[in-house]
Amino acid sequence: EDDHIYLLGTSRDDIGSSEYIRTIHDVEYSNVPYFDLEEEVHLQSVVKELIQGKHIESAHDVSDGGLFTNLMESAICSGIGFDIVTDKQIRKDAFLFGESQSRVIITVKTDKVEGLERFLSEQNQNFSCLGKTSGDKAIIDGDNFGKIADWSSIYNDTLGTYFEN
C-alpha cells in the first residue's frame, strides 16, 4: 500500500503483434513490437542492481497483454489496487496494451524515491512515475476500472466456470 509505481524503459505508440490487437481487433498478423537488444541488456542490468541492492519492492516485465495486464497481475497477487496516469503523448490503447519490449514496472517505498530517481538518472535509464499502489481498485486517469477482487475472480475462475457449463 502506498508504494510508488515506476515504468522503466520507453513506451511507444506501438500495438503490433499484441494480444490486444489480436483479441480486440481480430488482427492475426501485424508488425512485431519494438525491440533493441542493447536497450534490453542495459535495462536488465539496471533492474538487477535495484533488486540486489534491495531498493525496490517489486519488479514485473511488461510483456503479454502490455502494461495494464502486468499491473493487474501484480495487483491480483498482492490484493492491492493501483492509481496511475497514462502518457498523453501515446495513444491510450498503445500505452496500456502495447507489448514493445525493454520495459519493467517497479514499485518503491516513498523514502527510497529520491535515491531511485538519482540512480536511474546516473544510469541513463528512461523512467516515469505512473502513480501509486492504493486501495482495492484499478484507477487509470481518474477512471475506476473495478475492484481487484473482481478482476481476480475473472482471472482465476473463468476456465473452471467454462468447463462447468
- State the order of secondary-structure elements, H for helix, E for strand: EHHEHEHEHEEEH
Radius of gyration: 16 Å
Which descriptor suits the 3D outline?
globular
For the largest sheet, list the strands in their spatial order.
2-4-1-5-3-6-7
DSSP strand tally: 7
Give an overview in words.
The chain has helices at residues 19-23, 37-52, 66-78, 92-97, 113-122, 148-164, and strands at residues 4-9, 58-61, 82-84, 103-108, 127-133, 137-140, 143-147. By secondary structure, it is of the alpha+beta class. The protein has a seven-stranded mixed β-sheet with strand order 2-4-1-5-3-6-7, with helices on both faces. A hairpin with a 2-residue loop joins β6 (137-140) and β7. The longest helix has 17 residues, at 148-164. The protein is globular, with a radius of gyration of 16 Å.
Protein topology:
Layout: E1 4-9, H1 19-23, H2 37-52, E2 58-61, H3 66-78, E3 82-84, H4 92-97, E4 103-108, H5 113-122, E5 127-133, E6 137-140, E7 143-147, H6 148-164
